[in-house]
Amino acid sequence: MTEAPMTDVQGPLILLSLGAGALLENLPPVAGAAHDATEPRRLRIGYIDEAQRHLLDAPFTGPERERLVRFGYDVVDVDLRKSGFEEALACVDAFYVSGGDTFALMSGLRRSGADKVIAERVRAGTPYVGLSAGAVAAGPDVEPAALMDDPGLGLDLADFRGLGLTDTVVIPHADGQLPPYPTELIDRTLNEYGDRFTLLPLYDDQALIVDAAGSRVVPSAEPAV
Asked: Active site includes 132?
């Protein structure tokens, strides 16, 4: 198992490839009591779909969001393209950054300034959940995603810095089970970028957890709910 070096992040980070079983185990959907011990409060999770905006006709319609609702989270949609998104970020208990195109995601985060807001909150202890592109973006640099995603969607980026929440760059879908990401493409990515970055190939039924106890790869098969 490849260890992700710790940073100053309080976290935790829950970095997913596809399956989300580790999410429920590490971020229970009940946040605590709203008024008394008999009235638990659902955890508010801020859903950021910037990585998919170039694909969807309307925001917040993807299956990842539907899965969060099914799991029992109180989903707060965070639209980085509208003024006032900072208030939405401030009112949530955790961040969820969806899959899609890594470069489109970083472009939106950087353009809005949400990258700094999210990084500051996570370093102070707000949980960060990232799936696929959202997992890659948590690392120090997103350049290793260049063979899997479209760097052209990040032409306004001055550089390919990620959020810097971990020193490891997750390479999702590393088992080659999804047609857009065959094992040959994963191998090319590891060969081309492995000498410059600390890469972690992550299977679709795995997750990387980074918290106060350290870092570890755990099973993350899709739960039956």
From this structure: yes
Among the listed residues 17, 98, 112, 173, the single catalytic one is 173
pLDDT value of position 2: 41
Cis bond upstream, residue 12 (ω within 30) = yes
Instruction: Report how far residue 129's alpha carbon sits from residue 73's, in angstroms, rounded to the nearest whole number.
Output: 13
Q: Amino acid letter at 117?
A: V
Residue 57 exposed, middle or buried by CB count within 10 Å (0-12, 13-18, 19+):
exposed
User: Is the predicted pLDDT of residue 56 greater than 80, yes or no?
Assistant: no
Q: How confident is the model at residue 59 (pLDDT cuts 50, 70, 90)?
A: low
- Whether residue 33 has pLDDT greater than 80: no
Active site residue 35: no
Q: What's the whole-number mean pLDDT along residues 198-220?
A: 96
pTM over 0.85: yes
Q: Of 15, 41, 43, 40, whose CA–CA distance to 27 is shortest? A: 43
Question: Hey, where are the domains in the chain?
Answer: 13-219
Question: How many Å apart are CA 50 and CA 81, to the nearest integer?
Answer: 9
| Active-site residue, from 98, 112, 132, 220 | 132
Closest CA to 103 of 53, 59, 63: 53
Q: Does domain 13-219 have CATH number 3.40.50.880?
A: yes
pLDDT for position 53:
79
